[in-house]
Design a protein that fits this description.
Blueprint lengths: L1 E5 L3 H14 L8 H17 L3 E8 L2 E15 L2 E13 L8 H15 L4 E4 L4 H5 L4 E2 L3 E6 L13 E3 L5 H12 L10 H7 L6 E7 L2 E11 L7 E10 L2 H12 L5 E8 L18 E2 L3 E2 L3 E3 L3 E4 L2 H7 L10 E8 L8 E8 L2 E4 L7 E6 H8 L5 H6 L3 E3 L5 H7 L13
Parallel strand pairs: 4-5, 11-12, 17-20
Antiparallel strand pairs: 1-2, 2-3, 3-4, 5-16, 6-16, 7-12, 7-15, 8-9, 9-10, 10-11, 13-14, 17-18, 18-19, 20-21
Helix pairs in contact: 1-2, 5-6
Organism: Tissierella simiarum
Keywords: Acyltransferase, Transferase
InterPro entries: Acetyltransf_17 (IPR041380), Acetyltransferase_Eis (IPR051554), Eis_dom (IPR025559), GNAT_dom (IPR000182)
Length: 416
């Protein structure tokens, strides 16, 4: 019988290091030096970061796999809620197809459910595997390849300079001010920004004003083997106002003598409106005259593990001033206690669980799609249009869609 226990000894972490190295060859945990570095870093994180814990899956004394749990605080629709994250899911190659991964995810869900958490999330190695377990898609990532000259050129970049480790507190202050008003962002701590400067590849430029950072960009160079002309990959771009954005863009615009493309990984679908020419370098034109401007990928997935709990946590959120008694029927084959119906009463936009059996309209959908809906990753109209949700009375379609509508999809800049 499989059991889960927290990793504590150096032996535990040594075995886990070997499992991770074999499960993820791309991590380059092969040489003794690489293994030692990964082992020491994992043990250090376990010891020093109170929000991260490593676990192993054991059968008797044999470790079959392992994972890492993350305790997060997320801004969901302007409400700060606790969420659980799981990363570094690794299964010993000798025990593949023996339901080790399912054991890991089941324990992950139970762990956070027992803590009173209503939502968990993960980055999927296979989206279909996790969708079957009730995880719904989050906001897509768009990758743009833009010539520097196609970015706005402002009047100045005089407030832009490189950030250093000494600026970590100012960077986290800037991030957390944006976190306070951005759906989906996860609260960060100074240690996370300080760790950025341990990676020699990562560069941080920031906009400084009144002794504060009002915007910043984290990037790295993508080197070309054939020429001195290279690319810049922007992995994170945050700004509090247009002025800081324009100076950051002016900084990038001025790199055209040695930089071929600026590659943006960004979750904002409207980013192309900033650009003089959003078309990328593929020269691909399709059906009939549409220029390819970005590639899109699906990543972070959300999962509601307590439907009543998430509604209660959002009691202070205004669901667009709607009045409605809504029956929500959720199909959840993975968490039996979450499978079934609840009636939610919305009065002037504020929601509460109703004990009455009467309701105005019923919607039915899978827990994966409800998880995407409640985070505003997708609209109810889209779920209905594509047959992922049903409604008992189409006359309420506009109202139900408005209940779950938001001006912004969730953004997540935390990798775990």
């Amino acid at each position: 019988m499989k059991s889960i226990k927290e990793l504590s000894s150096e032996l535990d972490f040594t075995i886990f290091t070997d499992i991770v190295g074999n499960a993820y060859p791309g991590f380059n945990i092969e040489t003794e030096e690489q293994k030692k570095r990964f082992l020491e870093n994992s043990m250090k994180v376990q010891k020093e970061n109170p929000f991260v814990t490593f676990y192993g899956v054991f059968e008797e004394d044999k470790m079959l796999g392992g994972m890492r749990f993350h305790d997060f605080k997320m801004n969901l629709l302007s409400t700060k809620i606790n969420v659980g994250g799981i990363g570094l899911i690794a299964v010993d190659l000798l025990y593949k197809k023996e339901k080790v991964a399912k054991t890991i995810v089941t324990n992950f869900i139970e762990h956070y459910k027992n803590l009173g958490v209503s939502m968990v999330m993960l980055y999927p190695f296979r989206p279909d595997f996790y969708k079957k377990m009730g995880f719904g898609f989050g906001t897509s990532m768009n990758q743009y390849r833009v010539k520097p000259s196609y970015l706005p050129k402002g009047n100045s970049k005089s407030n832009i300079r490189y950030a250093t480790k000494d600026d970590s507190s100012k960077l986290v202050d800037c991030y957390n001010r944006i976190y306070e008003k951005t759906n989906g962002l996860i609260e960060k701590h100074e240690r996370e920004f300080a760790a950025l400067f341990n990676n020699p590849k990562s560069k941080v430029v920031a906009y400084y004003k009144d002794n504060e950072i009002k915007g910043y960009m984290i990037y790295e160079f993508k080197l070309s083997e054939k020429t001195f002309i290279n690319d810049i990959v922007v992995n994170q771009l945050l700004f509090e106002n247009t002025e800081s954005l324009m100076e950051l863009m002016t900084f990038l615009n001025s790199q055209s003598d040695q930089i071929r493309y600026i590659i943006f990984n960004i979750q904002d679908e409207d980013f192309r409106f900033l650009l003089e020419n959003p078309a990328n370098d593929s020269d691909n034109i399709f059906t009939p005259v549409y220029h390819e401007c970005s590639i899109q990928g699906t990543g972070l997935m959300y999962r509601v593990i307590n439907t009543k709990g998430i509604i209660n946590e959002l009691a202070g959120h205004n669901f667009n001033n709607e009045n409605c008694k809504l029956k929500i029927t959720v199909n959840d084959n993975f968490i039996m206690g979450n499978n079934g119906s609840i009636i939610v009463e919305f009065i002037k936009g504020f929601a509460s669980i109703s004990t009455d059996e009467e309701y105005d309209v019923e919607i039915s959908l899978d827990i994966a799609d409800f998880s995407s809906l409640i985070t505003c990753s997708v609209t109810f109209n889209s779920l209905y249009k594509y047959g992922r949700a049903s409604i008992s009375d189409e006359n309420y379609l506009k109202r139900v869609n408005n209940i779950f509508a938001s001006a912004e999809k969730p953004i997540c800049l935390t990798i775990f």
